[in-house]
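Fold it.
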Amino acid sequence: MPPSVLPPSWMRVLETIEQSLAERLAAVPEVPPAEPLTADTAGHWQPLLDRLEERLAQLEACAAQASQQAAAADALLAADADALAAWRARSASTQQRLAEWASASV
């Protein structure tokens, strides 16, 4: 499958997004290192850490599903692009035959 070609305006859109993200990341303050967990505090935090692990697993599953759906959409778009290219070729051929027919009948 040939790589997709985006119009030049998309590069500007992507550059704007990239610049915006870079500005936002630069504005985020550094987080100081956390205090090490002790036996007393570990028990308190463990249910929260377990919940966080569960949520991260759900997020990873969601990202994997989105990736699969994007791949499926890319495949559909590629098939449609191929069909459009074939239609355009047939249309050009038909246009040429009509032009030849019209000039021959004059």
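The CA atoms of residues 14 and 20 lie 10 Å apart.
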